[in-house]
Write a structure and sequence with these properties.
Length: 272
């Protein structure tokens, strides 16, 4: 939520015609910064946001926010004077920040309607307990991957790896999976049962430092998978695991939200 507020600062600055931070305002004028008024209404707007995020309304909180409002007004005025917001590609950055903020607010609304509960986290943990008892899950694998559009592209990458090319570098440059690609292909630790077929049947037959000599096809493309490390799987306690499980479930719910939305839209190309 804090990151959303930082983004909203930029948006508010860009949307106000005078590049000052515009708010619902009203009320008593508390301070004047180079002729620009900061009112009790503006202060209350920000206090209400802070309280909604768990802060306690207090004189100290109000003074901190007031100091911040003064700084933001000063920055906004300087940005207007120097033309900062229209320099280079700053206008695009502001537009992108606005879109990202709307996206995060949309996700927040989705989670309000579809909250993640302690029971959800506990249920997922119990699934992992059950998985840990399956024979194929005695070991846990730290994996990296490179994903391509075609088998030919994947084979070319494997040829480069065989000549000593860096897996991490190729993942960053060529992988279609931008999330893992940005990390040099690293996906993290996983049990075989958590992997998509047929990767789940290939990995248990691999050793540390080995990558697949043939690309593996899934619905997402052609994969070159590397085993970075292997260790016996020891299931942590619920208290130890719940934070990581909750984070994974949040990402899963975000994907569910996107999938549901995309089913409701119609995409067409002009002239077709």
């Amino acid at each position: 939520m804090k990151s959303i507020n930082k983004i909203l600062i930029i948006i508010l600055m860009s949307l106000a015609s005078h590049f000052a931070i515009a708010q619902s305002g009203g009320g008593t004028v508390l301070v004047v910064v180079n002729g620009a008024k900061i009112t009790s209404g503006q202060l209350n707007d920000w206090v209400n946001v802070a309280v909604s995020e768990g802060a306690k309304d207090s004189p100290e909180l109000r003074q901190t926010i007031m100091n911040d409002l003064i700084l933001r007004e000063a920055v906004a005025q300087d940005a207007k004077k120097t033309g900062l917001l229209t320099t280079g590609n700053n206008a695009f950055k502001i537009k992108l920040a606005e879109q990202n903020a709307v996206l995060e607010l949309w996700f927040a609304q989705y989670f309000k309607a579809h909250p993640l509960s302690e029971a959800d986290v506990k249920a997922e943990y119990e699934k992992q307990v059950a998985l840990s008892k399956e024979p194929q899950n005695t070991k846990e694998y730290k994996l990296s991957q490179i994903v391509t559009n075609s088998e030919a592209d994947a084979n070319q990458i494997i040829a480069q790896l065989n000549k000593g090319a860096s897996f991490a570098t190729l993942a960053q440059e060529k992988s279609l999976d931008k999330t893992s690609g940005a990390r040099g292909g690293v996906m993290g630790w996983a049990l075989p049962s958590q992997l998509v077929p047929p990767i789940n049947s290939v990995v248990p037959n691999m050793t540390k430092g080995q990558f697949t000599v043939k690309p593996i096809q899934t619905d997402n493309g052609w994969h070159i998978v590397m085993v970075d490390d292997v260790k016996p799987f020891v299931l942590p306690s619920f208290d130890e695991a719940k934070a990581g499980i909750a984070q994974a479930l949040v990402q899963q719910k975000r994907q569910e939200a996107v999938t549901a939305l995309m089913k409701t839209i119609k995409i067409s190309q002009p002239g077709k």
